[in-house]
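Regression report. Comparing outputs from two consecutive submissions.

Submission 1:
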Amino acid sequence: MRVKVRHSTEYHYGQAVSRGLQKIRLTPKHSGGQEVLSWRTEIEGGRKEVAYTDQHNNLVELLSIEPGSRTVTILCEGEVDTSDTAGVIGQHGGFAPLWYFQRATPQTRPGPRVRQLVRDLGKDFDDDPSRLHALSALILKTVGYETGTTDFSTTAEQAIETGRGVCQDHAHIMIAAARLMGYPARYVSGYLVMDDRVDQDAGHAWAEVHVEGLGWVGFDVSNGVSPDPRYVRVATGLDYGEAAPISGIVYGGRNESMVVQLQVQQ
């Protein structure tokens, strides 16, 4: 499938920015059954200082905000060819060793609720993929999809306690539980072609778990599937913080507001 993406994030500030830096992880990966045919990022109100590949093979662009700016716009667009790999990304690569993906982070640290989830899952499975698909289904049954109930700082434990969450929360719970069961696991940010719309409110997120003999395998808990050609992988990390599309710090620029425009289509 050829997927076309146009993604604009516009920041407005009630007071002029004195200085600021942003990390941009918005360029899709050349791997895992996808080929980037064309891609560009443009900045208004700032400039690109440097680009580098991080420990997860994410292309990171460092942006400085021009002093005095009240509006900063980050635009990315391009086309990606995707193929069906049944969610299997393949063997591990990148600078971070495989054991690194068994580390807990504040958002994925297992507590009593994650531990209970793993106990409820049981052990009667023929193989690892069956076990992990069952875990994904149990997470969705335990934490229903509902917007507006959590935010970017919500932990896996808090989302289970709330009983509601979004794709970010489902991914964090899947990662926390998989690591507790001994699997390396990571967070994925990206895009998803939806059947009923082109315009979307935000990008998508899911989890990948490393299975011996298969390598990395994707699990989209929110939709109950492994990623197929509708999915575009952009950035990976231990959790949302390491794979966030945009992150950084701004001095001055009070009363920040943000407008996102996203189109994803075949």
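Submission 2:
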Amino acid sequence: MRAIVYAENGPSSVMKLIDRPVSKPGPGEVLVRLVRAGVNPTDWKLRAGLSGTLSTPEATPGQDGAGVVEEIGDGVSTHIVGQPVWLFMAQHGQAWGTAAEYVTVPARKAVELPAGASFDLGASLGVPAMTAHRALTSGAVERVAPGSFSGLTILVHGGAGAVGNAAIQLAVWAGATVITTISSAEKAALAKAAGAHHVVNYREVGLGRLGNAIREIAPEGVDQIVEVAPAVNNDVDRAVIANRGTIAIYANNGGDELTMPLRATFSLNLRYQFIQLYGVEETQIRAAADDVTAAVAAGALRVGSEAGVPLHHYRLEETAAAHDAVEAGAVGKVLIDLE
């Protein structure tokens, strides 16, 4: 099979295309023939050595993908050969990820792709959708399902990003009123396409007035915040969060340090939840996989420009360019075509 590998951490040029044997699935594993692979920031950061150094002779990048079950290992009763699946965290805990024609993964990481869902959508789930799910369930609501967020107002910063877009789509499906902040008219259109009820351009409003603009939309405050840039937004977040609300932080865009006035924050009784998907409890990962799949089956999670997620396709031999596009901040979803 064809696969992308790298034998040292570094820029995208360390990756090369090789032929290597197809692995046999071990006990509890399935072999998946990949149709699409998704590319996330975590992929290029791991390859570059920003999220740990390479500990195996070589590795294949890629946490997310979608394809068809090709072979089943001993003890697996949850899958059948020919079953379409979407994959999450494929490279976590092993050297081989989804930038290859085949990959073996623990069966729990290969989730049935609902009928009618495209492989483009399946490969776009994984890290973004499951991170969004955890951000939304860090407060009072433990599951994302129709009606579970009824009466709540959710603020999503960076609504045109992959996690932000998934958070908007999931929260709207669950009945929330969604406000999102963006930086341009183009990104405002994408956030609206995702289903956001209110879009605020923070560059037009200015950070000094952003809190007021959000409070005009939600006078009682917002119940939950999905935060991508806490170092920049924390003062705004504290100004708009409702008492006993939750600020769920999944990235450090805009700065690596967060400071706040403690005494002034006490009265808010708020919760900060920091999220790194690879350390989330297994029960929460399982809940995310189940809820994301249900949202796909219901047509609530979508991709494509009409859903606010422009798709960018690359061939397997163009994986370096795909990584570079994500590192450069490509708007939408970068995918690798494997057939």
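Expected: both submissions complete independently.
Actual: both completed, but the second showed a warning that disappeared on reload.
Relevant detail on submission 2: The domain at 2-124+309-337 is CATH 3.90.180.10 (Quinone Oxidoreductase; Chain A, domain 1).
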